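step: validate -> pass
step: tokenize input -> pass
step: predict -> running
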Amino acid sequence: GTTASGASILANQDNGIELAPAAGNLIGGTNSGAGNVISGNGQSGIYFLYSTSTNNLVEGNIIGLNAAGAAALPNHEDGVTLYETVGNIVGGATAGAGNTISGNTESGVFIWGAGAAGNVVLGNYIGTDVTGTKAVPNITNGITLEGVANNIIGGTVSGARNIISGNKQEGVDILPPGSVQNYIEG
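step: predict -> pass
step: emit ->
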């Protein structure tokens, strides 16, 4: 969704990456140069669909920002959308595993739909630049959970906490019906 330099938008009409259905995939990585710039797309940066999109890992990416990670190049919807998915991980507790998910037109991360459970969002900067010190807001929430159960945001081990700051609305918004037993930690 960007030019080759990652400095301006050259949009894909729909999602930047769509997994529908897909299991066991890695988007990005912790090694130098493994992360992607997933920005400027007509819908979400990354969109996971259905319960069979499971055990996928998103780490080390810049989502909704320019390649420098300093200014917004918004995806027109969410940075990462997980719809009815189970057991996916966005980020990680090890060095380089966290994503920067900022500047998007809707939520940084949106988890919704019946059966969306067991997803984990940890070690990310959501609503900031890549340093975590400057606001680059998602226009709605940092993270939205709608009608979902048993998802984990953050964690208790070192490196698992998310920095969720600078967003235009809520940092984390948990919406009914059916949003129960989700954990916000760290």
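step: describe -> The first strand starts at residue 17 and ends at 19.
step: cleanup -> pass
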